[in-house]
Amino acid sequence: MEGIVSLRPATPRVSFHFPKFPSSRCSIPSILRSPMADRRICIRAQQSDSKDVSSTLSPVNESEENALKIKEWEVGRFQDEIAASQGIRIRRRPPTGPPLHYVGPFEFRIENEGNTPRNILEEIVWNKDVEVSHMKEKKPLFSLKKALDNAPPARDFVGALRASNLRTGLPGLIAEVKKASPSRGVLRENFDPVEIAQAYEKGGAACLSVLTDQKFFQGSFENLEAIRNAGVKCPLLCKEFIIDAWQIYYARTKGADAILLIAAILPDLDIRYMTKICKMLGLAALVEVHNEQEMDRILGIDGVELIGINNRDLETFKVDISNTKKLLEGKRGQMICERDIIIVGESGLFTPADIAYVQESGVKAVLVGESIVKKSDPAKGITELFGKDISCNFQ
Ligand SMILES: O=P(O)(O)OC[C@@H](O)[C@@H](O)c1c[nH]c2ccccc12
Questions:
Q1: For the chain, which terminal residue's Cβ has fewer other Cβ atoms within 10 angstroms, N or C?
Q2: What is the chain's Cα-based Rg?
Q3: pLDDT value of residue 262
Q4: Minimum CA distance residue for ligand 1 atom 11
Q5: Interval 304-334: pLDDT, tens
Q6: CA distance 44 to 287
Q7: Which atom of ligand 1 is nearest to the CA of 312?
């Protein structure tokens, strides 16, 4: 939104065509935001070499600019409305008052919610929104698409989990390269991502998860790239807060084999759209849920092969591994079996008893960070976690 305020075309060479939305009360898919945002970047790119031209702004431009701001604001409201109707509490960006000259319903004009995030997940999402819009400016989608040709080939993430489960009779392990988290602080001081990744592979991990969020998890895309380039064979999950399809392309150019889609922040239509993009790029999508409502939403989407049940509530950080069991009971578990969906038990797993508990609940894979990354030898950490050596050498 900030960028729009500073948009000052020197000459009226840019014309805007707004999609026609019937009324400010109706719902439109949030993915419709992307063309708008892309247009914004495009316009800014066209203007990048112009001096400060604000004084030469004609009244026509001024009203076009206001119209753009109003439409973007309305689209933002539609997005939040759709999300809320699906039980999503996380708003995509801080609420702003309606733009100047807005002539919509009166209730919008007197509303003032303030711009404090309601919880940590919302704070992460708001930060990510700003971060992604800056990254998109530097590397627009067309240049990312070109970079795809030079990316290392995508490997079979789901296949690796299935094979490991068959080989060991235990859940396939996705071992997480995680330096820190907002809830636990720094987990490992001397943190060498490649060394940790190699130890995980040696210890019998089927796949790895690499956190790429810098601000809250001290991760990076450099870590992901370095692990891939070091020749680690385990397929890699890019652990990122994805809110825009652009990030999926970016992850692929950095060597990811899978990405994470979090149901608590993405409406159904985004998940449908993004899983299709993943298929197109040869990536696996791990769709993460935390409660029954999210699980039911995801089971209503065709083509989802991999669902993660997070035992940690990302809004409060409370961890409860019985969440995995709860979400797999009854009809849901049956449906998952029939469709041959792989369930990944995520977070808070520390002991062989924890692994046995989630396995009995129906998971075929687990995602583990803290308990193994903290060990001086993460390979041994895996043996301790499973209560036996699961490395390939041993079998
Ligand atoms: O360190 P733990 O408790 O073993 O958790 C790992 C993983 O499940 C957790 O890092 C995670 C699950 N979903 C996420 C979404 C974003 C960031 C992190 C996560």
A1: C
A2: 23
A3: 98
A4: 347
A5: 999 999 999 998 999 999 999 999 999 999 9
A6: 34
A7: 12
> In whole angstroms, what is the distance from residue 238 CA to residue 10 CA?
41
Q: Are 346 and 312 in contact (CB under 8 A)?
A: yes
Q: How far apart are CA 281 and CA 272, in angstroms?
A: 15
CA of 308 to the centre of ligand 1 (A): 10
Ligand 1 atom with the shortest distance to the CA of 371: 4
Closest CA to 246 of 31, 23, 5: 31
Distance CA 130, CA 17 (A): 24
Query: Hey, what are 387's tokens?
Result: 């209560």
Checking 290-297 for CB contacts under 8 A at 24+ apart, the result is 290/263, 290/264, 290/314, 290/323, 291/323, 291/327, 292/326, 292/327, 292/332, 293/87, 294/87, 294/263, 294/264, 295/327, 295/332, 296/332, 297/86, 297/87, 297/263, 297/268
* C-alpha of residue 347 to centroid of ligand 1, in Å: 5
Strands 180-181 and 185-186 turn out to be antiparallel
Closest Cα to atom 3 of ligand 1: 347
CA 368 to ligand 1: nearest atom? 4
d(CA 21, CA 68): 13
From 174, 177, 181, give the residue whose CB has the most ligand 1 atoms within 8 Å, as the site to mutate.
181
Cα 44 from Cα 73, distance rounded (Å): 19
Characterize the bridge pairing of strands 236-239 and 365-368: unpaired
State the pTM of this model.
Answer: 0.82
Cα→Cα distances 32→173, 180, 310, 393, Å: 37, 34, 29, 50
User: Which of 347, 375, 382, 384 to probe ligand 1 with, by most ligand atoms within 8 A of CB?
Assistant: 347
Asked casually if ipTM beats, i.e. exceeds, 0.95, the reply is: yes
CA of 121 to the centre of ligand 1 (A): 13
